[in-house]
Predict the 3D structure of the following.
Amino acid sequence: MTAGKAVCSDEAADGRAAAPEFGADFRTQLLELFKWRRDVRQFKREPLPPGTLERLLKIACLAPSVGLSEPWRFVVVDSQSRRQAIRACFDASNNDALPGYCGERAALYARLKLEGLDHAPCQFAVFADPATGQGHGLGRMTMPATIEYSAVMALHMLWLAARAEGIGMGWVSILDPAAVAGILEVPPQWTLIGYFCLGYPLGESLTPTLESDGWERRGDPLTTVIRR
């Protein structure tokens, strides 16, 4: 997928850079990128080229954040012992969740592949630091959860940037946050946003995995819009 063409005008007289103009071809490709962003659960064992993860993390940090606080904290997990501990945490949490379903739904849940921990070459956790002094508290007094929202924005930036390079990402949410924090030895005030697998997908599909597996179907997006 190519990036398309963006035309930039000259720098404005007052020193500010003028906004680029993104053409119709670029917008079409951008929509395709959005459609092909998938939550990947099955990965090839092939490693990513050296420096890929670091470059994607830099792109993630271009995300907006409340008060310019940049509260995201990326913990890259290379240690095999820590990865195994995360895997054990997932298995325990997954087993705890199963009794919450019954009948056919329980059988389907038991068959779902809900993580990519065994084969993904890159794994990392993302935390939000609510105690960060950066940003001087701007925008957080009435809505403190904007710290976590900001970290999610960074994740989405990384997700799209990875997909543009044919790299898949999977969000492992069936984990005990306290256990993950202990395994990764992070400061106690950090809030776990999620644990992620990154690598080349084993297969490609426009259909979300949970939809193709029969768990749920996408709804009509306009049904979520309320006008007042």
